[in-house]
Design a protein that fits this description.
This is Phenylacetic acid degradation B. It comes from Halobiforma nitratireducens JCM 10879. Pfam families: PaaB. The protein folds into 2 domains: 52 residues, Phenylacetic acid degradation B (Ubiquitin-like (UB roll)), CATH 3.10.20.520; 34 residues, no CATH class. The chain contains 2 helices and 3 strands; from the N terminus they run ββαβα. It has a 3-stranded antiparallel beta sheet.
Length: 105
């Protein structure tokens, strides 16, 4: 039987998939996981799960994030003209600068 192994490096962090082990039962799978995946890197905990029990949801099953248009929240969405739009133009410039800085980081 194949068991998927998820490793947590430090307490409070997410568990990430690090591989799998082949074992006849849960106890052997936990021992194999500790030997194969727990000793190579700093490890706080391991999750050992039967491969058949790991469920997957992909983009064909459900639409993930970004389905609602919320572009109205950003000044860059609006076209500005006239004297009354000065604040929006300044905000748009600040937004563009912030996006550039995030890209540089």
């Amino acid at each position: 039987m194949i068991w998927e192994v998820f490793r947590q490096e430090e307490s409070g962090e997410y568990h990430t998939h690090c591989g799998n082990v082949h074992a006849p039962d849960r106890e052997m799978a936990k021992q194999f996981a500790a030997i194969q995946h727990g000793r190579r890197k700093p490890t706080n905990s391991l999750w050992v799960v039967p491969k058949a029990e790991v469920g997957e949801i992909d983009a064909d099953d459900v639409a993930f994030g970004g389905t609602t248009d919320k572009s109205y929240r950003w000044a860059t969405t609006y076209r500005t003209t006239g004297e009354d739009a000065r604040e929006v133009v300044e905000s748009e410039d600040e937004q563009a600068t912030a996006e550039q800085q995030r890209g540089d980081a």
